[in-house]
Amino acid sequence: MQFLEHLELAILIPLLGGIFVLAFHSRPRLREASSILAGVLLFLYITQLLGLDPAQDHLRTLLEISPGLSIAFHLEPLGLVFALLASGLWVITTVYSIGYLNGNAEKNQTRFYLFFAMSIASAMGIALAANLFTLFIFYETLTLCTYPLVTHKQTSEAQSGGRIYLGVLLGTSIMFFLSALVITWIQAGTLDFVSGGILEGKLGGTASVLLFTLFMLGIGKAALMPFHRWLPAAMVAPTPVSALLHAVAVVKAGVFSVLKISVYVFGIDFIAEQDASVWVLWLAVATMLIASVIALSKDNLKARLAYSTISQLSYIVIGAALAWPAAALGGALHIVTHAFGKITLFFCAGAIYTATKCTHVSQFNGLGHKMPFTFAAYLLGALSVIGLPPFAGSWSKWLLVEGSASTQHYIVLGAFGLSTLLNCAYLLPVALRAFFKPPSPDVAAAGPGIREAPLACLIPLCATAAGTVLLFFYIQPLYDFLYPVFNP
Amino acid sequence: MIEGYFNYWVVIILMMMGFYIVISDSNLIKKIIGLNIFQTSVFVLFISMSKVKGGTAPILTDEASVYSNPLPHVLILTAIVVGVSTTALGLALVAKIHRAYGTVDETLIHGQDDIQDET
Amino acid sequence: MLDHLPALQVIIPLISAPVCMLVTRASWAWLLATAVSIASFVMALLLAREVSVHGVLSYHLGGWVPPLGIEYRIDHLSAYVLIIVSATASITMLAARKSIEQEVSREKSGLFYSAYLLCLTGLLGIAATGDAFNIFVFLEISSLSSYALIAMGRDRRALTSAYQYLIMGTIGATFILIGVGLLYMLTGTLNILDLQQKIPGITGSRTLHAAFAFLTAGISLKLALFPLHLWLPNAYAYAPSMITVFLSATATKVSLYLLFRFFFGLFPPEVSFESFHLGRILLPLSIVAILTASFVAIFQDNIKRMLAYSSVAQIGYMTLGISLASKEGSIASMVYLLNHALIKGGLFLAMACIVFRINSVQLEDFAGLGRRMPWTMAAIVLLGLGLIGVPLTAGFISKWYVLSAAIEQGHWLGAVVVVGGSLLAILYIWKIIEQAYFRTPVKVALHTSAIREAPLAMLIPLWVLVAGNFYLGLNTSFSYNFASTAIHAIFP
Predict the structure, then answer these.
(1) Residue B85 lies in a domain
(2) pLDDT-derived band of residue C325, with 50, 70 and 90 as boundaries?
(3) Distance from CA of residue A133 to its chain's centroid?
(4) b/e for A348-379, b at 16 or more Cβ within 10 A?
(5) Beta partners for A129?
(6) Looking at the domain assignment, is residue B44 inside a domain?
(7) Strand partners, A409
(8) Full residue range of the structural domain in which residue B84 is found
(9) Mind telling me how many Å the CA of C174 is from chain B's nearest CA?
């Protein structure tokens, strides 16, 4: 299995898929097929990587830009989980996109699939990065590759959304992330990800607090307030983009970077010792609550989900900032569980739009009877995001709550409780309205015209909804796999 | 004071005169004249510094043992060539500007450009 | 033959210039200019190899032994700049034929190419010579020919821009002449190596102070260091497209080389920075240059002007690196020099392509170009990313080095400005991109199907630069190692 060692394959496969997409510009079927094929191949490749011995460091240096600064990949449980998640959901999303784009007769589909593939390639780069430098490079390419997706409709609305998207993400990353990177480089003399961190003894006290804050603000993709505006702005994108990129690839790349930096650059113990996360912790708690309240006020379903994402991302940041192994592990699990829950919700939003052109929650009255599968899936996804058993979200939330109790951050504990209540308040009414309120006059008038979205949309959303339940029962392997990362 | 640094006083006065004309005058030709004076002051600086007290012109003869330094003269010969080319090019440009704008006054030219920008 | 390379490097373009004037057919003149440019590029590469293998090359012009005779002295720093200048010249000339045919009238094209060759001579000469007065002469050769070249632009404002440049450039050059004269007065020598050995003994002298001040002011004018940059935006905006490409990538870069040569070589760095506090002058000016020029660039509607202001800002980054007075800062500045020459040359070349097709560089006329000239626009996007400093591009590498040099020295303000400048660059680059991809043309004339992709002869050189932008972003072995050897040689 020599080829498995060539970790750059994870980037090349989607890129190659992209080239085929380009080549089959005028043959839509072949184009879609090559997109799916690349997705499946990538997923299979990543699953094969799971079989390699993670104890060995499968370091693969692609090129050394200048001494000490290299583009290199390695295998490590956290990254593998993220890679597996992103590649798996890519396949599902591609199927969904085919249904959605054709159902809504979107233009420029070749460009869409091309940049989609490039985004996944960037996400793979982030997942497998062996040092901060590589991570930063792919972090930036991910921003740039997703820009054409966000502005896909090329309307002035898309343009202004794209401006905010690019401005915030590029701005924070250059202003804070890059600065933090250079400071780390100068202080630690290396940018490699090393278990236990590289800053031990190199930095202390306020400087470490500042550096950690700089990193966390710099990772604009983690959407910590006040740098969260890009996420709702990016909702002008077609729904599959919102689903994959803003429930999975982009935002998860952000919080994945947060965890990776906490574990491999700072080291959980180092953060705890130096209390480096003290500012970030409160910022994340504030973000979690404020975003939930804003979500409550949004009538547009996608906007509501966007704010819900911002709030959920802060759970993961809190997991890292608590500097407690169990909490950080909870954060890592939350990446997976929230991905399944949130992508289901976005898929449902897209399916509802495709079937009815309704975008606002207040228009959903009575739709549940016309689209039972969609709304049932929505309900499952919502319950998982809220964190009720028997859904996947409950495990990660449990670990986070446990972590906050163990570190005696009772205010954080209270905030988790409050946030859960708010989650119920903004997620559940959507489904309840659809099932229990009488149809509004115009929905009733449309009558039999409304039915479920195309199968290509419906199957993926049922699959991810089922995933939230399955993950609840089969979380153990994932837990065991990630455990050594946080308890070296 | 004045005596010992006489050549420098001349240089500085000439230089400032030239510089002032370049900055203050709006007539493009006068600016070039100013530039010429400015450059000439530097020539004076070079040539005056090559003078050695009691030295003669740098021609090998039996009578003299002290010569002035000839190198600055040579350098300035080159600099004069540069200065002449600059003046020539400058005047050529002014001639073309006059043809294009009908004036050699800087303020009027800027006025015309501003009008062109607005339309 | 190989022994005479340092002189041939300068003399071949010099002799070809009058020949070019005599050639009657425009295409032959172009052919000659191109051949000479490529030949000088080959010679620069050979010289660089010689320097790497045998160390510094010293060539005695006419066999006169320095310090009496004029010496051509090629060290790593010179070779580095020679490569940049001659490579830019080759790329520019390869792309130039059609654009020049369109912008310069046929009967003048012989003159045009000979002026271009003289300009090339001057720029190469500055880098090759080891004699302070010779530097002045070559500086004037390149400047005078570039005034003439700029004046050949089609807009009548090219004339006033050239005039303005002539006035400011001559003042700058004269300042340099005064500085050189004062140095000669003190030391009795013009040879840079000789000066370098004599200056540390006389640092107390007030005349040396004066010489230093005149040289600094003169070079800063040529360099377009804020606030002496006023000539640059107009000159770049109204010059013939190809001349902008050439000058943007070479003229200010060679002046930066002079800054290195004078303040690290001629004056030992400890004299420049400790006795004369060069850093304290350069640092604030660089910071103001980066911020104000980037800011002004955002509000320009003429894209060539926008890029010109961006150049002023980028010069600020380079002088910022120098002002740190550390080896790392200087290396950063050298790397920046190469990368920026490549990126800005590429962007102006793309502008030349656009001028060739739509005859305008106004922002509003860029509407819809994303569809009509996809390859040109894609090149602008990629080079623009380089200008912003996105990873994988050459621009990132240069910003990285400047940033880490600044942080290493504890210059936090400088570091903040470096990243802040990048943010401003996003704003002005994105203005172009949004206009090209999100808007449809308003003017009827621009709707016609006549607007199509630029000719291959221009596109290929453009994409060579784009490829170079990524190559230098991924492989710094040439840029960093060569610059680092150059700096280590002059920085004790």
Answers:
(1) yes
(2) confident
(3) 21
(4) bbbbbbbbbebbebebbbbbbebbebbbbbbb
(5) A73
(6) yes
(7) none
(8) 6-50+68-118
(9) 7
CB A317 within 8 A of CB A328: no
Q: C15: closest CA among C31, C33, C42? A: C33
Cβ pairs bridging A and C (under 8 Å): 65
Structural domain contains residue B34? yes
Encoded tokens for A271: 């953060």
Q: Which two tokens stand for residue C146?
A: 């570039």
Condensed to tens digits (0 to 9), the pLDDT of residues C7-20 reads: 888 899 999 999 98
For residues A291 and A390, give the distance between their C-alpha atoms in angstroms, rounded to a whole number.
26
Strands, E assignment, C77-159: none
CATH assignment at residue B18 = 1.10.287.3510
Q: Which of C250, C239, C278 is nearest to C88 (CA)?
A: C250
Residues on chain C touching B95 (C-beta within 8 angstroms) = none
Q: Which tokens sit at C361?
A: 């560089």
Residue C165 is encoded by which pair of tokens?
A: 């440049």
| Cα-trace Rg, chain A | 21
Contact A200, A188 (CB under 8 A): no
Chosen for mutation from C335, C336, C393, C426 (greatest number of chain A CBs closer than 10 Å) is: C426
pLDDT digits (tens, 9 = 90+) for A59-72: 777 777 777 788 88
Burial of residue A438, with CB atoms counted within 10 A of its CB: 0-12 exposed, 13-18 middle, 19 or more buried: exposed
Total Cβ atoms within 10 A of residue A167 = 18
Could you give the 3-state DSSP secondary structure of residue A356? helix
Give the count of beta carbons closer than 10 Å to the beta carbon of residue C230: 15
Facing residue for C474 by CB, picked from A63, A185, A186: A63
A346 close to A247: Cβ distance less than 8 angstroms: yes
Nearest to A407 by CA among A416, A419, A418: A416
* DSSP codes, B35-94: HHHHHHHHHHHHHHHT--TT-B-S---SS-S-B---HHHHHHHHHHHHHHHHHHHHHHHH
Nearest by CB to residue C407, choosing from A66, A69, A182, is A182
Q: Is residue B20 part of a domain?
A: yes
In eight-state DSSP terms, residue C110 is: H
Q: How many domains does chain B fold into?
A: 1
pLDDT at C179: 92
CB proximity list for A105: less than 8 A, separation 6 or greater: none
Chain B residues near residue C136 by CB distance under 8 angstroms: 79
SS3 A14: helix
C-chain CB neighbours of B114 within 8 Å are: none
Strands A69-73 and A60-66: antiparallel
Q: Sort out which chain A residues have CB atoms less than 8 A from C391's CB and list them.
A: 136-137, 140-141
Q: Is C133 on the interface with B (CB under 8 A)?
A: yes
Q: Closest to B45 (Cβ–Cβ): which among C137, C147, C181? A: C181
Cβ proximity of C255 and C247 under 8 Å: no
Whole-angstrom distance, CA of residue A73 vs CA of residue A51: 17
Measured distance CA(C73)–CA(C71) in Å, rounded: 6
Given pLDDT bands bounded at 50, 70 and 90, which one contains residue A390?
confident
Question: Residues 41-100, chain B: which have Cβ within 8 Å of C?
Answer: 42, 45-46, 49, 71-72, 75, 78-79, 82, 85-86, 89-90, 93-94, 96-97, 100
pLDDT of residue C435 exceeding 70, the answer is yes
The first and second tokens of residue A146, run together, are: 């997703």
* pTM greater than the 0.90 cutoff: no
Nearest CA in chain A to C401: A182
Query: Closest Cα partner for C115 from C32, C201, C21?
Result: C21
3-state secondary structure of A62: strand
Dihedral pair phi/psi, residue C131, rounded to 5°: -125, 130
Question: In DSSP terms, which residues pair with C57 in a beta bridge?
Answer: C74
pLDDT, position C161: 92
